[in-house]
Amino acid sequence: MDSISQGKNEVIAKSGTYTLIDVWLVLGRWQEKRRVRRYLARLPDYLLKDIGLERRAVMLEAAKPFWR
Q: Where is the YjiS-like domain (predicted)?
């Protein structure tokens, strides 16, 4: 997460107010997490090894709910 987004999240957390754009951005991040996790779970072991990941770690990550 870049520093601008992180700073904005801190402001939102402190103020407790959310705009429609904030909600839209959160939904987009959740969708991206879900997409990446599903993609990684489908990769063969030799490609995971090539990018420095182990099947077990990928499966644990893929099992997480989309909001984590």
A: 23-55
Query: Which is higher by pLDDT, 16 or 31?
Result: 31
Tell me how many domains the chain contains. 1
In a 13 Å sphere around the CA of 17, the CA atoms on its Cβ side amount to 3
The separation between the first and the last C-alpha atoms of the chain, rounded to the nearest angstrom, is: 14
For the whole prediction, is pTM greater than 0.70? no
Whether 67 is covered by a domain: the verdict is yes
Q: Is the pLDDT of residue 8 over 60?
A: no
In a domain, 1, yes or no: no
